[in-house]
Amino acid sequence: MTFRVCANLVGVSILVALSSLSPRISEEIQRGAMFSTAIRLLHLYSFGTWIGMQFWVSFVAGYKMYFTLTRHTFGHLQSQLFPVYFSVGSCLSTVALVTYCLLHPIQLWNGAEKYQVCGLVISVFATIINAVYMEPKVTALMMERYTYEKELGYGDSIGPIKDKALKQDEKYLQMTHRFCVVHGFTSMANILSYTGCIVHLWYLTKSQDERDNWNVHGHIVRVNEANSRRGLDNIPIEEEIVAVNEDPFNRPACPLFEGDLCLDPEDRDVVNQVTEETDIKRNVIRNKKKLWPGNKVLFFVDSKLHHLRPKIASAINTLRDRTCLTFQEVDSSYKGDYIKMYQGKGCWSKMGRSGGAQSLSLGSGCEYVGVIMHEVMHSLGVWHEQSRPDRDRYVEILWNNIKPGRKKNFKKYGHGKLDSLNLPYDFDSVMHYDRRLFSVDGKKPTIIKRGRPWIKLGGQLRGTLTTNDIHEINALYGCKSHSF
User: Fold this and answer.
1) Per-residue pLDDT tens for 58-117?
2) Going by C-beta distance under 8 Å and a sequence separation of 6 or more, which residues neighbour residue 287?
3) Are 143 and 182 in contact (CB under 8 A)?
4) Residues that are catalytic
5) Could you give the CA distance from residue 262 to residue 201 in angstroms, rounded to a whole number?
6) Residue 384 counted as an annotated binding residue
7) 471 is in an annotated binding site
8) Which of 14-28, 142-156, 197-211, 214-228 has the highest mean pLDDT?
9) Is 72 marked as binding a ligand?
């Protein structure tokens, strides 16, 4: 009894303590690839062990022992097994829940992650209820009934007692009724716990391709909004001062426009030139000073992004192989213009070549090829697709479904400083909004295709360029004939 109570108190204490620190710890976990891997391993180990225990004890061992061992031997074995089973289960389910929350900060939860957390929470509390309250009562009632059976000379048979006389014994019937009621609740709680685990298992078995199909820009905005809500209240002042002084790129120097753009004054002039003249066919900058000279893009990858190097390489290689641009990595001592990829707060970039070491942030939640490609394309000079001046011919903005204060993110760009590349509107572009982005309730669409309002919009996290994405970059940099 002491072991059971202590184990569950420790489990609940860990849950409460770590959950309260989850946002901060989650951020630190995302900064260390090895530590993150260790947490994932701990989660899979605790969850896998617990769901395996539940299946074995509930559906295999229990039935096998009931029809193999004598009645009282089975009962005594159960009285020793179940306290340990529920106590260990409480700890394992708690660890599984806490590690999942550490790996998935609450600010970034989507529908699937909410369902999984609910399933794990149900498993934790159903198991703790069984361990602390239900199991001791079931064991006490079972031993009371077995003692009475032994007094009457029963208990050495295998399986249920079939003696009609005993089944007519009023005292025994009352004992059996009390036992069955409490045992029924215990079984229901155990099945509820197992069902909660199955919910999590269901989502674990979904392929990475499903996550890769999420809209790129929708995911970027969700990450950036989560970082802005997180705030700085829980960060020590000295730590923040040192971070800012040592790394001037630690935070964008301006508010993010359209969810992921840190604009220079010249770029803001572009977005302020709203017009109904819709001769522009594509959203790219006309100012050649904002393009990379010689079609050569220089970039630097901060050491804290070492765990993202394979994905950064994938994004860069795709752009290099399918466009006329070349990419060269430099070190931090380089004095010219280059893109500085670092682990900041959120996913955002400058627009085009802005001079010097220009920021491109890849923080927690930005670990996708599509996100990296999206931000790099901003750095090349590509704007969001749905903001082109002629967009109303192709899509409809549902203004009433947009969050208050977010309608500015659906402005059309002016044509004064954009270039006409004579390319059609690209609904699948990696630079296009998701159809529910900035939705007032997260469900209502904010931008839909005219005539086909149900189709998905925008590129996916897997990072696939459309033909028009490729044509756009090649045309922007004056090499339309480039072979890819």
Assistant:
1) 889 888 888 888 888 888 888 889 999 999 999 999 999 988 888 776 766 767 788 899
2) 266, 352, 417
3) no
4) 375
5) 40
6) yes
7) no
8) 142-156
9) no
